[in-house]
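Working notes for the structural subgroup meeting. M.R. asked for a predicted model of this chain before we commit to crystallization trials. I am recording the input and output together here so anyone reviewing the notebook later can reproduce the run.

Input as submitted:
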Amino acid sequence: MICPWCKSEIDDDSWFCDQCGKELWICPKCGKPGRGKACIYDGSMLVKASEIVNLSSGTSSSNIYQGINQKISSSSELHLINRNLNLDLIIQDQDIIGRTVGRFTQIFSQYKKVSRQHCQFKFDPQLGWTVIDLGSTNGTMYENVPLKPNQPVPLKNSSYLIIANIEFYVEIRQVGEQTERL
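Returned structure, recorded in token form:
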């Protein structure tokens, strides 16, 4: 599992992040970790990871725990990689890349050609990972083709994406075939 706070990879059965020490909160419906009070994927209220593990041992809580042991064979992680800048960004559904908006502002704030909110990434069950240019000044290019603003473009593994003047190698990694246990 990926810590929603520091983005470190940690054991699936963790109650706290091994790296940053934050307590983990999990969606009882989809099983994904999150920040805040509600799941960003389905709106369910998050619960402490320790409570979900405790609930899993009881028989009356099967409804709450149902989404936790799920098949993740169709799950994938989107990575944007630039070796020259030593970047390997793990993208989440709905992530925005920009100088002042999104999870990666600490990285992109120094690149003046990147717009304040440049592009967004979404995961679509039919199309897979997509990128949307948000009307950026210096544009987004995928496989050397400029993107039209506000139109999702499906991404393929081992392709190239240029955000303003920064080129990224697109890597879509399959999370695994086994059952995820939190």
